User: Fold these one by one.
Assistant:
Number 1:
Amino acid sequence: MSSKKMLFGDDGSMPADAAWLWVNCHDWPDWTIDVLRAVEAQAAPVPDRQLLRPEMAEDLRTMTVREDPRYALHTRGSDYDLIVIGSKGRGLMKSLHIGSTAEWLMHLPPAPTVIVRGGHKAQRILLAHDGSLHAMAAERAILTLPWAHDAGVRIVSVSDGTTDGVEIAAEAGSRLKGAVREVTTSVLRPDELQVFYRPRDIIMDAISSWHPDLLVLGSRGMSRWESVNEVALHRAGSTASALATHAPCSVLLACHRE
């Protein structure tokens, strides 16, 4: 088996500590973990990260660069199988807002990217699937995780009249079956009395009721779920961006690339 690589964005903040704990809660056999520190010129030194269990990964390396972390992670990220960052940071890695590192990676991640909220093991994974190429990339990202076989996956799709949510969820479930501990599917529908609705709100309701440890979705594929509803409400922004920003759990975003 060829070695896979993870890029961990580290600024020494408490959210980065939580993200590192999340990494250490899982096993990464045959993976090399590169810790990338993009620091300001006068930044105080940060202690090196250590694996809590040396056997959990094949290798651990640390790189320090004096660059904007958005540039550092985005330009190097395409060489990796997974990027992991905290949801907030200090210094150049500021909280999740327009222009932040997480915001940059959210819209066009160079590799599947986990924005960590909470340093605990992911045992319940919610996959939001609309049948798009980006959602397919998110589905494949789950299969890349070496510990996915220990996790239960619930696949949700929103039936909005333009996509066959039942078929989408069923086909995704058949592809994941056997690779994860269990697979369940759920097709979400807006209330019949709702004239205008936002699929992201329906998915947030599913998150609130199922309490996943990790939400997985395509970074841009959710546009098929916005269409007329978003235009009628005069709202900007994508479903994926809203979910990544407001979901209470960790979020994995993936983007289809030609």
Number 2:
Amino acid sequence: MRIVSLVPSITASVVALGRGADVVGVSSYCPTEGLPAGVSILGGPKDVTSEQVLALKPDLILAGEAENDPSLVRELSGRRGTLIARCRGIAEAKAFVLALGQRLNRLRLAERFMGEFDRVAGLATSFHRPPRRVFYPVWKNPWIAAGPDSFCGRMLQLAGAYVIAPGEGDYPRVDLQRVLKEDPEVVLLPDEPYHFTVFDAVHFSGTRAARLGAVRTVPGQWAAWYGTMMAEGLKGLYSSIHGVPLPG
């Protein structure tokens, strides 16, 4: 099988499901660990063209509605041998992983990954502390935040967050002064898509989060990546939000 994968989390999931050796093309943001040395790097997720993809003669094309260019997604959607991820919520993400496992002839392994996610989600719910007010920016200048209805927001809520994002839409542009007035208890600064660092903590120095020592840098994969890594992401978010590891 020849696989082209255009979304980082999907590429990582293909590797985790034991089919990394079959990948012939990826986007420039995709991890390359576990892939063949000669894999083709096709460009940024929004820049890849259907001509580039089809030139590799793939048997399976993996793309994302949110991550890839809409025109590319439209072109590929009707093609046989294409699987498009449409993962706004947890249920859609789980269904996608199972569909991916089936396409790769790794359904049982995919089911085990999702079973582990369900186990971790159950623990997060069982050990639910009072929800903490969390601000999770994804971009700076302008400031853009993960809203409660986004995939990131749903992962954060599952981990015990009350998501602060004063604005409309999945990823609203926010007024930082309004965010500061809402006085978040936790600020999580991811390293993608914008690469926040510890130096960005200065923007939140007057908040309760700063007083509690809860302005933290985190891997962006924890909240944003859907796929086989969701259980580990949820554990990381729980620990970062509550300041303690998830029991069990």
Number 3:
Amino acid sequence: MVDVKAVKTPTRRRDREASRRALLDAGIALFSQQGYDAATTRAIAAHAGLNEQLITRYFGGKAGLLSAVYAHFLERRDNDAAYAALPPSGSAQEEIGRFLHWKHDHLHDIARLLQIVLPQLVRDPTLAPGFDNSITQRGAIILAERLDGLKRAGKVRADADTARVAQLVVWQSLSLSFLMRRFAGDRDREILRLIDVFAQEMGAGLATG
């Protein structure tokens, strides 16, 4: 005898996952093209070819969809694995500089979506924890681990709080590579110079010599 539940459950799960992905992709497209206010849930659902009520069911509404869209977008675009695969650096300055250059390129890719996300954080503070995590945690853990490796090798001060340093570096990357580019113009040469200066100063503060 065929177990109907055993047959239907995996199919329903696949359908749910496919519908959720379709809504996320539609959200990325319409939020990026039209902005948060102009992109309606009806239009997003229509773009995905699904019922509008599924946005509430899966994400709790438009704000929840935006939060999920941002996380989904980062998963698609993020190249943490590529950064993690790089060979170890010889100093904290080199490691921080390399991280900031990598983050600079990544933030350039997601700049349009960040322009939509950040104003929503001001309007709806309840979204902040999820966005804070997605912005700051990606890459910061890897950077902290690499700085710990330099600490074990005697190239970073033993009392250095590498996790805190990594978080500071990530927020500095947001300031330099997104906010400065957004409000001061696309001045890559100046931004890259400031990145190198910041890495040099941070590296000097962490060095054991």
